[in-house]
Amino acid sequence: MRQLIGFLSGLVFGIGLLLGGMADPRKVLAFLDVGGAWDPSLALVMGGAIAVAMPAFALARRRRSAWSGDAMALPANRRIDARLVGGGLLFGLGWGLAGYCPGPALVALGSGSAGAAVFVGAMLVGMSVHDAWLARAAPPAPTAPTAPR
């Protein structure tokens, strides 16, 4: 059941990205070009997504388990720190340069887009570098003391 819910959720999300134009980097870049030939239509897509997500998150906060039966796991951190701001800036920079963000890039990759393939490859490299950096910065895990011989 869990896999079916995940599959259907991803399918609906991907179809929504396609119908909304989010998988077309030209449309995204036109939306971001507020000083030029601005295309505000993606604001409606984002507004619609927010309108659906807000009541869904309010409902999720009241539940103990997800529809799949798993424990409900909502983010608890509400701090705005340098890591959050830096991540947002990197995300926005990548979105503005390439016209893709992760979800639409995966949808476009499925259509055989070469640009999406380059973006997804770079995204995977960036994720690997990030994970390696976090692992290196983390303190070593404590080891259990051994009994004397």
Question: Care to give the gist of this entry?
Answer:
This protein is mainly α and 149 residues long. The chain has one domain.
Describe this structure in words.
- This protein is mostly helical and 149 residues long.
- It has one domain (2-137).
- The protein has helices at 2-20, 25-32, 41-62, 82-98, 102-110, 114-137.
- Helix 5 (102-110) packs across helix 6.
- The mean pLDDT is 87.
Blueprint (SSEs and pairs):
Layout: H1 2-20, H2 25-32, H3 41-62, H4 82-98, H5 102-110, H6 114-137
Helix pairs in contact: 2-4, 5-6
Mean pLDDT: 87
Structural class, by secondary structure, is: mainly alpha
Order of helices and strands: HHHHHH
Q: Which residue ranges are poorly predicted, with pLDDT under 50 across at least 5 consecutive positions?
A: none
Q: Outline, from the CA principal axes?
A: globular
What is the CA–CA distance across the termini? 51 Å
Strand content: under 5%
Q: How large is the radius of gyration?
A: 20 Å
